[in-house]
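Archive maintenance. Older records in this collection stored only the sequence; we are now back-filling the structure field for every entry so that each record is complete. The fields below show one back-filled record exactly as it appears after the update. Entries are processed alphabetically, and Cytochrome P450 is next in the queue.

ARCHIVE ENTRY
Title: Cytochrome P450
Organism field: Agromyces tropicus
Length field: 400
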Amino acid sequence: MTLAPDLIPVDLGDEYLPWTDPQFCLDPYPWYARLREENRVHLMADGTYVLSHYEDVLGVATSHDMSVVPGWDEAGPWKVNRDTIIGQDVPEHTRLKRQTNKWFTPKLVRQWVETTREQIGLALDRIGDDGLVDGWIDIAVRPTHVTMARVLGLPEDAAEDVAKAMAETMPMLAAGHTPRDVDRAAAGFAWLGEHIDEMLEARSAQPQRHLADALLAAVDTGDMTPTQARATIMLFYGLGHLDVGYLIVSGLQQFTRIPGLFQAYKNDPSVRKAIINEMVRMDPPELSIFRTPTVDVEVGGVTIPAGSTIRCLLGSANRDASVFEHPDEFDYTRPPQASMNLSFGAGVHHCAGQVISRAEVEVIFDAIADRFDSIEATGEPVLDHNDFARAFHTLPLRLS
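Back-filled structure field:
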């Protein structure tokens, strides 16, 4: 594996969580295991409380005594998301979510993923006789970006540019981010904002047939502010490929690494959802969520004062042996009650795109399984993992 060169190995964190250690960024799970065993509620030198147990992470994620609002003023370029559902508490969160939830009902998701099916079909058609394809751009990014662009009713021809812009924004989320990372994020969001504005200005007047139309109409009715509508459109357009794309490319990598897994997926449709769920558990795109308690709370026998920062390690919770037997083993035969991972979060701030993301992953893997008998890696992937999020730049594959 090759790490992208921008992650500078500054000595941040501590012996339990060496945030910027390159090996930790590649594979934090041995450190997570030690933390779960030795230090249930871990207080970092900067005052952050870190939780690693499933029960504790789930409890904080679903608690009504937690807020996501504090900290946005220090979020730099990322504070554009303060005006969306990911930056607001109830009841404002509920009001904003009402504007988008109705566009992602199971019935509509089935309609949206027909675009995914069309686009992955075109991507597979373009593969030459040698079977070579890039798992990131060709399979993960383009089909999912086009799908979300059509949900929004926006042009769909900038998949690679959007992916590059969002890739520029992610390194500043790392604990060891540098001033250059902040500048890169600012440039990425600036390009994305300008691109959104150009597309919205070019739209002709039309009925509310798409999500972007509905959000702009909500401004006219007073249900959203112009800033909230623009930020929400940017959120869905910019992130429409990101986490689901990671799940797809990570799943493809797991197909290449785990003997017999792709054959099981191909030959037995009844296990496909379980295989995808185990992929999601084993390698979530985002490893942490942050919360701020509005009152003093007790977690694992430790009192955490109101106003503190709590970092919940989703990746660690997904490997908690008290919930998942043999947690480091890929086992898609786990019963449903023993496979409820937290990769999409929990509580009111669970991932708004979970239903469509799972559907897109399944449609893409089904299309590959229908046409090909094997997936193999043809080279090392280029990764851009950090302590907070996982990212691929390339995954060279051969489908045959």
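Update note: The CA atoms of residues 118 and 158 lie 17 Å apart. Confidence is low (pLDDT under 50) at residues 1-11.
Entry marked complete.
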